[in-house]
Amino acid sequence: MMGGASENPELWAFLESLHCGVFLSGTVAAIERFGVFVALDDGPAHPVFPGVGFISFPELSWRLFEEASDVVQVGQRVSCEFLQFDTWNLEARLSLKVTQPDPFQVFADTIAVGQKLPGQVTKLTPIGVFVQVADGIEGLLHLRELAWTPVETPSDVVQVGDKITVVVTEIDRGRRRIALSRRQGSSTGL
């Protein structure tokens, strides 16, 4: 698409000199529906794009967001970690979220398996319900852990918005998941 090192030798040399994990500063140059362009402070300009740096949506924030503009604004100063040299587009793939503490890991430090937590039902699915147990943190309450008696569909037992008490049954830091139970939280049958 962009031509190789011969057409943009300065840009190619700059991108090749970057190492994974280095931090690059710049200014948000444009917000597109597929990601965010960053004009880097150091290095040459891009021949086609608004900036040499590019942040994909998953790398913008740990938290869920509707629009990229909920996280960054055009003209905003950012410092990002360099992930890789995208040789096809001649751009530096960046991550903004790694500069922030992951709220999941911070939360996981404060809880333990077996602990009771207050939560609010946010979503019903065929396999169970999602329960928000902290700001931006949701756990899965599996169908079989929803009640003592077998449950056909989650809506037989709970509705979105219900406040319930749950017990942490598993904390998976690698996959950033929490498994919850309601059966273990109730006194019935214990």
Fold and architecture overview:
The protein is 8% helix and 38% strand. The chain folds into two domains: 9-99, OB fold (Dihydrolipoamide Acetyltransferase, E2P), CATH 2.40.50.140; 103-181, OB fold (Dihydrolipoamide Acetyltransferase, E2P) (Beta Barrel). The protein starts with 8 loop residues before the first helix and ends in a 9-residue tail after the last strand. The model has no long low-confidence stretch (mean pLDDT 93). Strands 1-2-3-5-4 form a five-stranded mixed beta barrel. A five-stranded mixed beta barrel has the order 6-7-8-10-9. It is mostly beta strands. The protein has two helices and ten strands; from the N terminus they run H-E-E-E-E-E-H-E-E-E-E-E. The longest helix is centred in the N-terminal third of the chain and has 9 residues, at 9-17. A hairpin with a 2-residue loop joins strand 6 (116-125) and strand 7 (128-134).
How helical, in percent, are the residues?
A: under 10%
Count of helical regions: 2
Indicate the CATH architecture of the largest domain: Beta Barrel
Taking the alpha carbons of the first and last residues, their distance comes to: 64 Å
**What is the CATH superfamily classification of the largest domain?**
Nucleic acid-binding proteins
The count of β-strands is 10
Q: Please write the string of helix (H) and strand (E) elements.
A: HEEEEEHEEEEE
Radius of gyration: 22 Å
What name is given to the CATH topology of the largest domain? OB fold (Dihydrolipoamide Acetyltransferase, E2P)
Note the overall shape. elongated
Q: CATH first level of the largest domain: which class? A: Mainly Beta
In spatial order, strands of the major sheet run: 1-2-3-5-4
